[in-house]
Amino acid sequence: MGPARLFYDEDCGFCRFAAERVRTWHLAGHLAGDRGDRLVLAPIQSPCGDRWLETLGPEARFTSWHLVTPDGQIWSAGAAVPELLRRLPLGSPPAAILARLPRTTDRAYACVARHRAGLGRLVGREACVLDPSRRGDRSGARTDA
User: pLDDT band at residue 34, thresholds of 50, 70 and 90?
Assistant: First the structure.
């Protein structure tokens, strides 16, 4: 059926950091013998993001990360966490727990999202680009995915 796609904001230092951690976790499954390609990561700003997130308006694309399942369903913010974990090695047990705690997962995601610029600095990444004038030229301008 194909992989799910995780889209993140490449202009956000913390988002890039988190995507790198997810990529490492996913690759660990390959090293352990799990050859299922269940996940592809790409920036929201990429042509791939434009294609898979076309049903979201430009502003909605940047409100959070998004996981698009092979059937085209889009999971965003905290709701994407259990769906993402199910696709990672040993992620099913925490996914089952978090799927039963949607309000808690949404609140935790919202807290991280609110503080992502500071978190980006803590992990040594460039702080998030929060200048709204930069948000206007994001559709289709980049070709990295």
Answer: low
Q: How far apart are alpha carbons 114 and 64 in whole angstroms?
A: 10
Element (H, E) at 52: helix 47-52
Report phi then psi at 15, rounded to 5.
Answer: -65, -40
- CB-based contacts of 5, cutoff 8 Å, min separation 6: 39, 40, 41, 42, 48, 52, 67, 68
* The pLDDT of residue 56 is above 90: yes
| Radius of gyration of the chain measured on its C-alpha atoms | 15
Contact 64, 79 (CB under 8 A): no
CA distance 5 to 35: 17
For residue 8, CA distances in Å to 1, 31, 35, 66, 101 come to 22, 24, 24, 7, 23
Angle between helices 102-114 and 92-99 (to 10 degrees): 100
Q: Strand 74-76 vs strand 39-43: parallel, antiparallel, or unpaired?
A: unpaired
